[in-house]
Amino acid sequence: MRRTELIQRARELSRPFRVEKGETFRLKHVDPGDTQEFTAEDKPRAKEALALGVELLADFQDLLYAQDRWALLLIFQAMDAAGKDGTIKHVMSGVNPQGCQVTAFKAPSAVDLDHDFLWRCNRALPERGRIGIFNRSYYEETLVVRVHPELLERQSLPPRLKRKEIWPQRFEDIRHYERYLARNGIVPVKFFLHVSKREQKKRFLERLENPEKHWKFSAADIRERAHWDAYMEAYEDTIRHTATAEAPWYVVPADNKWFTRIVVGAAVIDALDGLDLRYPVVDEAARQQLQEAHRALLAED
Ligand code: ATP
Ligand code: MG
Question: Mean pLDDT throughout 61-89?
């Protein structure tokens, strides 16, 4: 497939899952088991598509790095075992590690809690020319903290700011923050890997039954699973209030890992294609220097 066709294909594959007008979004309209036109027998074809995508992504990243103007901020949010880590690993497998920075955000430390909720993420923003990846992010604030109000109590906020208006305010602040980033050439693209409760159970059981996967299991995962419906409400509300044209969400079906990876790869390609990236052109003076260097090298015996 030619480059232009691949880019077109990436757009077609990812667009059905893109949300940029939050108001119209309903989580129940996305089936976690969806694989579009691919069937289970197509898995090898799907893997091939991913390989092509990974190659194209590497080309784009080289351009991004050379041009050194834009940065891409990829945010991954999901329930446990939805496949964040594996997706990041596969989709970014072809890119130059120098141009890519991954940050995982776990439960906040005492120092984190002594700051505003965007602080630790803001410090981890990608430099120009880079792809920054957040494995969890400031969105935990409107997800886990919303599901567990006691976490809000532990934050060092002045008491009178902990009112119920805090959630609409958080959404507004996030929208403005992401608009600020976009206006500064840091392009946010957000992914919710949407796994079903049934598939999560299957993956937890695998982790418990396979000694090589024991390390991946934590008792906290089962505790959070008990709050499934509250999490789904929090995700829906978050996406409804923070999906915008300049910082879209992709709600990606996550019951089939191979499909999740294709869609995420395609969305990243689509985002990079939108940046009109090109290699810097050297000016006349620099070109003369290059010619001189070329002559000098050839003149060596
Ligand atoms: P994995 O399990 O694959 O190692 P993970 O991202 O699930 O990756 P964990 O250490 O298991 O990592 O979980 C991190 C926990 O930290 C999650 O339960 C998440 O909700 C919680 N967390 C992250 N950010 C915040 C926050 N701002 N406030 C409270 N809890 C948070
Ligand atoms: Mg975990």
Answer: 97
Tell the burial category of 232 from Cβ atoms under 10 Å away from its Cβ (0-12, 13-18, 19+).
Answer: middle
Which pair of structure tokens corresponds to residue 50? 């991913």
Residues 126, 101: contact at Cβ < 8 Å?
Answer: yes
Q: Is 118 in the pocket of ligand 1 (CB under 6 A)?
A: no
- The pLDDT of residue 292 is above 80: yes
243: Cβ–Cβ under 8 A, 6 or more apart, which residues? 19, 20, 21, 22, 25, 190, 249
User: Which protein residue's CA is at the shortest distance from atom 31 of ligand 1?
Assistant: 107
Residue 239, H or E segment: helix 228-242
How far apart are the C-alpha atoms of 301 and 297, rounded to whole Å? 9
- Is the pTM above the cut of 0.70? yes
Protein residue with least CA distance to atom 14, ligand 1:
106
Q: What token pair was written down for 18?
A: 């893109």
Domain architecture of the chain: domains with CATH:
3-299 (3.40.50.300)
